[in-house]
Automatic annotation (TrEMBL):
InterPro entries: Acyl_transf_3_dom, Acyltransferase_3
Key words of the record: Acyltransferase, Membrane, Transferase, Transmembrane, Transmembrane helix
Domain of life per record: Bacteria
Entry-linked Pfam families: Acyl_transf_3
Source lineage: Bacteria, Pseudomonadati, Pseudomonadota, Betaproteobacteria, Rhodocyclales
A single MF term (Gene Ontology): acyltransferase activity
Domain annotation Acyltransferase: ranges: 11-323
Protein name: Acyltransferase
Segments passing through the bilayer: 52-72, 93-114, 149-167, 173-190, 199-216, 222-239, 279-298, 310-331
Length: 369
């Protein structure tokens, strides 16, 4: 099968635009380059600074949409234990994520030698790295080692919560009803309290809108289902208007109508957008190390003009996309991820085999079955 056989051009386009907005938000937020950009071009870069982060909602809705497709395409419950699915999801996220954390640690060490700025993470400790590796850094209160890594932890939490809800609802109608009920609770209560923003429940409203868009677009009574979704979301916005939720609702409706009309799999037919959508996770992961290095170089130069700032920003964005392309090819792509996972498994098995031959250590290890 072609690697692009199951790709959806509309989703790729949305992910591409969202990834660029997140990238520009971070390039407008961290370091002397960001300060200069906001000084010279306040209208554009203040907008990126204030609203670029909203693009995360696009990823949340798409993630819910695709999770519904993969876990419960027809609204059915999960019949088997969700644990293998959670492990598979963890590996899918963690293999490139941990590689990117390593790049961020190296870039921070380099930047710390040449620049003083709050954007540079403090030197990583083993416990801090371990908290990141287990995706618990936000819950345990550890400082982030890279910008945006909170989202990877939340993405895993959201997938796990949805899988558990679908597994809990063993009757066909109950499973999606549980998901939509929790999403409604998120929209009306949890998403209005920022103290929950390290937990999946805070974001599950947007995620649930994506799942609802998938289920609604596959039913004959689509208008009735979309009417219910609209009523719930608009009521939540009337009680407490949040632009991020309004954006999530718009993306969910676009995906639902796109699937029903066929546009989801046909439009837009633009290869650069499709490719950028394909590598969007890599863009999300590797642009912060590039940002640190770009700010370090900028801080060491004597250039101080609007043109030099714009050129440096442009080159930094291009470097981020080039690095993401290489990162996708060698780390994130399914083939590379399988190769890395298999290598890690081989190393672990051989290390365990050697450890068993050491008298004291071997007695502490469980027997092979």
């Amino acid at each position: 099968m072609s690697p692009n056989a199951n790709r959806m051009p509309l989703i790729d386009a949305l992910k591409a635009v969202a990834a660029l907005l997140v990238l520009m938000n971070h390039f407008s937020s961290y370091g002397p380059l960001a300060e200069a950009a906001r000084d010279y071009f306040p209208g554009v870069f203040n907008w990126f600074f204030e609203y670029g982060r909203m693009a995360v909602q696009v990823f949340l809705v798409i993630a819910g949409f695709l999770a519904a497709r993969g876990l419960s395409a027809d609204g059915q419950a999960l019949g088997a234990s969700p644990l293998p699915l959670l492990w598979k999801r963890y590996l899918r996220l963690a293999v490139p994520y941990l590689a990117a954390i390593g790049l961020a640690i190296i870039a921070a060490a380099i930047a710390d030698q040449w620049m003083e700025d709050d954007a540079i993470p403090a030197r990583a400790t083993f416990l801090q790295w371990l908290a990141h590796a287990t995706l618990l850094h936000g819950l345990l209160g550890f400082d982030a080692l890279s910008a945006g890594v909170w989202y990877i932890a939340i993405d895993f939490q959201l997938f796990a919560l949805m899988a558990l809800l679908l597994w809990s609802g063993r009757i066909r109608i109950v499973a999606p009803a549980l998901v939509l009920a929790v999403a409604t609770a998120s929209l009306f209560w949890f998403n209005r309290d920022a103290s929950w923003d390290n937990w999946a429940i805070y974001f599950f409203g947007s995620y649930g809108l994506g799942a609802a868009a998938w289920w609604a677009s596959g039913r004959k009574q689509m208008s009735a289902w979309l009417g219910v979704i609209l009523t719930v979301a608009i009521a939540a916005l009337v009680i407490d208007f949040r632009l991020r939720i309004a954006l999530a609702l718009g993306v969910a409706l676009l995906l639902g109508f796109g699937r029903r009309s066929g546009l989801l799999a046909q439009w837009p037919n633009f290869r650069p957008l499709a490719f950028l959508g394909q590598i969007s996770y890599s863009v999300f992961l590797v642009h912060f190390p590039i940002l640190l290095l770009a700010n370090t170089l900028y801080a060491q130069t004597d250039y101080d003009s609007s043109l030099s700032t714009l050129v440096c920003l442009g080159l930094s964005v291009v470097a981020s996309l080039a690095a993401a392309t290489l990162f996708y090819r060698w780390i994130e792509s399914p083939e590379a991820s399988r190769r890395i996972t298999a290598t890690c498994g081989w190393l672990f098995a051989n290390t365990l085999a050697v450890a068993r031959k050491v008298p004291l250590i071997g007695t502490l290890l469980p027997n092979r079955t």
